[in-house]
């Protein structure tokens, strides 16, 4: 049976990956959103809440995982982050397999995976598109977010494969440094190429 072409979509913090993923979805391409899956599984009644509470006591409440305290506990402690990933990542893989079964007949699907290079997922997709923008644009976007600090930004960057390396390893580059309209046109062109 034929299967969809799997495009992995990734990019560092603030590069515009979520915005670009929404453009693919708007064009009718099924998008697997790894972050959204994680949030759902960590939210109220989510399947990962009990395991996370057991590993990080006090890190959950009635609404599920308390993201800020858990983030504070793991961003800055690689060993703790690895323990959290050990709980979260296998569940994401299961969800992704289910998604592929659901959209088995589509010509193209997108895996929106922030940590595609970091966690070795690049081998499980047919091509990788990297969303990127100049460093100053990235910095301005990220620091404009509520609760973000220079120190937190620097630390998250240190956990992520550098943008230059991502771009070097990309099969396709999607630039978000200029207007949304230009990015949208680039996305449409890429869809046309991949489904031709
Ligand atoms: C610790 C948690 C609860 C903090 O949530 P919070 O809403 O505060 O932050 P958010 O998830 O938006 O992440 C902020 C930034 O850190 C990056 N980031 C998140 N997890 C990781 C990680 N394991 N390694 C490197 N960078 C990471 C994200 O890509 C993003 O750029 C959450 O990040 C989490 O559960 N992370 C571990 C699971 C994971 O690896 N998720 C990534 C998608 S599969
Ligand atoms: N050409 C463009 N393409 C994409 N986003 C743009 C563009 N111009 C401006 N933006 C803005 O930049 C921001 C990018 O945020 P977005 O949440 O998409 O980034 P992200 O890479 O998914 O971040 P994170 O990894 O932190 O979740 C949005 O507010 C978006 O409107």
Automatic annotation (TrEMBL):
Function as written in the Swiss-Prot or TrEMBL entry: Catalyzes the phosphorylation of the 3'-hydroxyl group of dephosphocoenzyme A to form coenzyme A.
E.C. no: 2.7.1.24
Keyword Transferase: yes
GO molecular function, a single term: dephospho-CoA kinase activity
Family: Belongs to the CoaE family.
Pathway(s) this gene product operates in, as recorded in its UniProt entry: Cofactor biosynthesis; coenzyme A biosynthesis; CoA from (R)-pantothenate: step 5/5
PROSITE patterns: DPCK
Name of the protein in its database record: Dephospho-CoA kinase
Binding residue positions for ATP: 14-19
Chief location of this protein within or outside the cell: cytoplasm
PANTHER family linked: BIFUNCTIONAL COENZYME A SYNTHASE-RELATED, DEPHOSPHO-COA KINASE-RELATED
NCBIfam families in alphabetical order: dephospho-CoA kinase
ATP-binding in keyword set: yes
UniProt subcellular location: Cytoplasm
Keywords: ATP-binding, Coenzyme A biosynthesis, Cytoplasm, Kinase, Nucleotide-binding, Transferase
Catalytic reaction(s) noted: 3'-dephospho-CoA + ATP = ADP + CoA + H(+)
